[in-house]
Write a structure and sequence with these properties.
The complex is a heterodimer of chains A (170) and B (181).
Chain A (H helix, E strand, L loop, with lengths): L3 H11 L18 H58 L5 H5 L3 H4 L5 H15 L23 H10 L10
Chain B lengths: L4 H8 L5 H24 L2 H18 L9 H24 L3 H13 L9 H10 L3 H11 L5 H8 L3 H21 L1
Helix pairs in contact in B: 1-2, 2-3, 2-4, 3-4, 4-8, 5-6, 6-9, 7-9, 8-9
The chains are: A mainly alpha (170), B mainly alpha (181).
């Protein structure tokens, strides 16, 4: 605080109209207000502090919960990615480009008949008979070729075999 | 007999004596802060609200208070900021012009059951309500709290020269108001 004389000099200079007016406020304060205030304020402050502590604990709990959840999600993603990666690694890779460029005429003579037969058996069982090119049995020298027979011969043969003849209507 | 500021500040930083130190601070400064606030917001109920907010902020901030400024300067700064926030809030609610706001606060002064228009101390209160906010604070701190311009500049963050000029203008306006009333 400045010297009291300085303050009163300033006041006399700037506010001569106030004269020797006392510096007390004319308003009143409710009775007992200042006696009660420290206790009221302290209880208010402590209540607020408790609420803030609870809020802080809640936020901390939420944060730690979210941290664990994020860790679990991360581990899950890593596991799933690892699983798919290992499955892909164990599959034999088939290079179609390489086989499409191969010269079949050169390779085929090197394959044994047995291997070819195994291949045909497998492909027949997978694709079905109707979709498979059957290997014709080799004709015996004495076998009759149908083109060389006349219709009369064929009818005679069938009647001998007692097979019913069904004629297509034209 | 009040506890020394140093003892209050150091006592507050120890959990066992925290509440005791805080209560000592409230007891020591409550009246000064109350009147500083009441000169600004006029009504007791508003003063009580602003004072309680001020003291709650003091509780929250006292642990980090550093002794490079005086405790009462720091308390006045918080109280002044709370007053200005309150007044700004009131202004937003009313959206009145400066003259209207001065009339509102003058009416609050007049509504006091002890108001006497012929007494000089009441005329002074009415005159203060017609000052702009900043001049009002400067005048109150200088006239009633007898605060030095050096301390006032720490509270308000304004240069001493500007504060002296502000007080001088405020005093002239008050004198004119009292003479003309």
């Amino acid at each position: 605080m400045e010297n009291k004389n300085e303050l009163s000099e300033e006041r006399e200079q700037d506010l001569p109209v106030l004269g020797a007016l006392k510096k007390t406020m004319p308003q009143l304060v409710p009775a007992g207000y200042f006696n009660a205030l420290p206790e009221i304020i302290l209880s208010k402050v402590l209540a607020q502090t408790t609420i803030e502590e609870v809020k802080t604990k809640k936020v901390f709990f939420m944060r730690s919960w979210m941290r664990y959840a994020a860790a679990a999600v991360f581990i899950g993603v890593v596991c799933i990615a690892g699983y798919f990666f290992s499955v892909n690694q164990s599959k034999p890779s088939f290079n179609y480009q390489q086989y499409s460029n191969s010269d079949i005429a050169k390779i085929l003579p090197t394959v044994s008949d047995n291997d070819l037969q195994v291949y045909l058996n497998i492909s027949t069982s997978i694709a079905g008979v109707e979709n498979t090119i059957q290997s014709n049995e080799a004709l015996e020298p004495g076998d009759i070729v149908l083109d060389q027979l006349s219709d009369e011969d064929l009818l005679q043969y069938l009647s001998e075999q007692n097979k019913p003849i069904v004629k297509k209507s034209s | 007999m009040f506890v020394a500021d140093e003892a209050i500040v150091s006592g507050f930083k120890v959990s066992e004596t925290k509440e005791l130190a805080y209560t000592s601070l409230v007891k020591k400064y409550q009246e000064q802060l109350y009147w500083h606030i009441r000169r600004m917001v006029v009504a007791h109920e508003d003063t009580n609200d602003v004072l309680q907010n001020t003291l709650i902020k003091v509780w929250k901030g006292l642990e980090n208070f550093r002794a490079d400024s005086q405790l009462f300067t720091w308390l006045y700064r918080i109280a002044t900021n709370e007053c200005l926030s309150f007044l700004a809030q009131q202004k937003r609610k009313s959206s009145d012009s400066f003259e209207d706001i001065a009339a509102v606060y003058s009416n609050k002064v007049k509504s006091d059951p002890d108001f006497d228009a012929n007494r000089l101390e009441w005329k002074l209160q009415l005159a203060i309500q017609h000052l702009p906010e900043k001049q009002k604070i400067v005048f109150n701190l200088r006239y009633y709290d007898e605060m030095s311009y050096q301390e006032m500049s720490k509270v308000l963050g304004t240069s001493e020269g500007a504060l002296k000029a502000s007080y001088h203008h405020a005093a002239k306006k008050i004198e004119a108001f009292i003479i003309n009333s």
